[in-house]
Amino acid sequence: MPKVIYVSHNGGQQEVDVPVGTTVMAAALKNGIDGIVAECGGVCMCSTCHVFVDDNFFSRLPPATDTEEAVLEISAEERQPNSRLSCQIKVTEDLEGLIVRMPEKQR
Amino acid sequence: MIAAGTVIIGTGLAGFQTAASLRAAGYQEPVTLIGEEPHIPYQRPPLSKGFALGTQDRESIELRPHKFYQDHRINLIANERAVAVETVRRQIRLRSGSPIQYDKLVLAVGASNRLLPVPGAELDGVLYLRSLDEAVFLKQRLASAQNVIVVGGGFVGLELAAVASSFGKSVTVIEALPHLMSRVVAPIISEYFDALHTSKGVKVLCGSSVNEITGARGKVNSVALNDGKERDADLVLVGIGVVPNTDLAQGANLSLSNGIAVNEFLQTQDENIFAIGDCAEHPCTFADARLRLESVQNAADQAQCVAATIIGRRESYRSLPWFWTDQFDIKLQMAGISHGHDRIVTRGSRESKRLSVFYFKGNRLTAVDSVNRPLDHMIGRKLIAAGTAVTPEQAADENFDLKTLGQKTKPI
Questions:
Q1: Is residue B410 less than 8 Å (CB to CB) from chain A?
Q2: Could you tell me the pLDDT band of residue B410, with boundaries at 50, 70 and 90?
Q3: CA–CA distance from B308 to each of A47, B22, B269, B282 (Å)?
Q4: Does residue B267 share a domain with residue B249?
Q5: Is B379 on the interface with A (CB under 8 A)?
Q6: What are B21's strand-pairing partners?
Q7: What's the number of domains chain B is made of?
Q8: Chain centre to alpha carbon of residue B255
Q9: Number of neighbouring beta carbons within 10 Å of residue B80
Q10: pLDDT at B1 over 70
Q11: What's the CATH code of the domain at A11?
């Protein structure tokens, strides 16, 4: 099972084994990662699962859809070039060791 | 008797989020969350969407896993009903008899389905959808149904019609008003969804209603409409709105209107009792009116507002309402409150399948409904929330750069 590393805004790290096909958001909720709120349940209606994806992984992700791009316009913490919604990132074998940093504010 | 602190009645999103936000903000007093359903808190929107379709399972719609409640010292009492609030003693009484003391009480008691008031509505095969158990039952019955009649062309009815149609059922939608979803969207959006459903084989009958449901051996077999015709049916799905659950509040002599009446701090006239989510009617700054809203946004934002007040950072509620519905592969996104508009303009077109409707009241943009134009929706939220000036001419002009205007607008 690929490992995903969640880094909180103050640097604390949590490693989680995530089944392939599960989203980075869903795995966060299931494993008690506090920096992900996921208010809308993963349907691209809110920005409360916003993450900054480590540069080594960002280019390996499928590009964001127009819907995700639009949501990133309203993120509580300003979007960066490596911003994504964690509900839209499905874990694959290729993403072993994926590092995502969580913003201080999700709302 | 259990210790005081905050007692929350209702385990929907509003109740759950109040508990979660209190703990996230460092609240140290006891938090008790009481719900009638036998389940841990779960998301309701997927019940008529992914859960009904089978793309989401029970575990995937849980708001948080079991462990969350222990880890955050949230005393979750499921399968229990609060039967009375005694405001003077600051106690609630449970069906099981025991009293629970509170310092702050949050009524997040939700709403109940409006029942179809026609003969035959009690027959086996007439179903409603509100809870997870009802969704499980509905799914089971849908699997073996052939002819499905959906009563009510609102969000839930249309979402279920889309699901039933995707399973290859013969589906008819009965809507009393002249347009689908007409309480909330402009006719052009209604027409778009009417055409979408029709193109998938759903029969959409607006301006029609059910006179009677008839059956044999206790089971539904047909529905008589107001046009005098009978239609075969082995499943009738009713989605004709809800009524707020006000019994507890009424028993406690709290003010009622279209729901439990609250002020801008979401407090009832007893300052220690709050009401939020589907059950509460609050003053909405974006509508210049008192509203009762049924939505994820409303439940989650009101919960956060109340949690902030309870921990001593009292704040008035002023979050922008937003909504969505998924029907077939189309998402309709709605920002703001369109009710009371005096002008609408469109951006995009039905033909291009990318369409937004901008609603104005005087010079003020009050709402945006979008189909396949997610940026319009998100920018719309920012513009409405901030009260940014945008003219109907600008909104209608695809060459006018809304995105940049949105980026210059302060965050929500």
A1: no
A2: confident
A3: 20, 7, 19, 17
A4: yes
A5: yes
A6: none
A7: 3
A8: 22
A9: 19
A10: no
A11: 3.10.20.30
Instruction: State how far residue B128 is from chain A, nearest Cα, in angstroms.
Output: 23
Is residue B375 less than 8 Å (CB to CB) from chain A?
yes
Q: Is A76 on the interface with B (CB under 8 A)?
A: yes
- Identify the pLDDT of residue B97: 85
Using alpha carbons, select from B247, B246, B222, B225 the residue that is nearest to residue B235: B222
Contact A45 B403 (CB under 8 A): no
**Residues of chain B found within 8 Å of residue A76, distances taken between Cβ atoms:** 411
Q: Are strands B111-113 and B219-225 parallel, antiparallel or unpaired?
A: unpaired
pTM: predicted TM-score of the whole model, two decimal places: 0.97
Share of chain B above pLDDT 70, in %: 99
Shared domain check, B69 and B14: yes
Domain assignment present for residue B127? The answer is yes
Residue B412 pLDDT level (bands cut at 50, 70, 90): confident
Q: Which residues contact B154 (CB under 8 A, 6 or more apart)?
A: B180, B181, B183, B239, B240, B241
Same domain assignment for residues B129 and B269: no
pLDDT of residue B189: 97
Question: Nearest CA to CA, how far is B324 from chain A (Å)?
Answer: 8
- B44 at interface of A, judged by CB pairs closer than 8 A: no
Q: Is residue B184 in a domain? A: yes
Range of the domain at B46: 6-112+243-310
Cβ contact B7:B104 at 8 Å: yes
